[in-house]
Amino acid sequence: MKRDLLYAWLLATLLSGIPSTLHALVTGGDPTEATRAAGAMLLPSETDFKTLLAAAAIVHPTVSLFWALALWILLPHRRTLLGALIASVAIALIDLRLIAPAFFPRVAALAFWPQFADHLVWGTCIGLAFEYGRRAHALRPQYR
Length: 144
Prior knowledge:
The protein is mainly alpha-helical. 81% of the residues lie in helices and 0% in strands. It has helices at 2-15, 18-27, 33-42, 49-74, 80-103, 105-108, 112-139.
């Protein structure tokens, strides 16, 4: 159901930055660095934080929706959580090791493991939401 896709995307988009933000706070790094890098995907020469924040508010949900839609279409209806986790590892490698170095240097400059953890949280959220939605639909009485 499309509502499940919307919930999965929203949950994943809102929670996926937690690991890298916590990592930055614990290690004394800049917790806004990933946000600035995401904004720079749209506005590469921009330095103003408010402008980059606005750009990141467009870029991050859009990229998240792209991948969520891909998983919505491609994942089997069983073992959705495991499939989403495996897919999020592949997506992390594609995003961080192929696309970012080629097109988005500020994203490529981010520490890999905190960003990788963000991708895993994203995949977990997608998988859990898809799994919950599919199970809830299976339990609903079918009317003819």
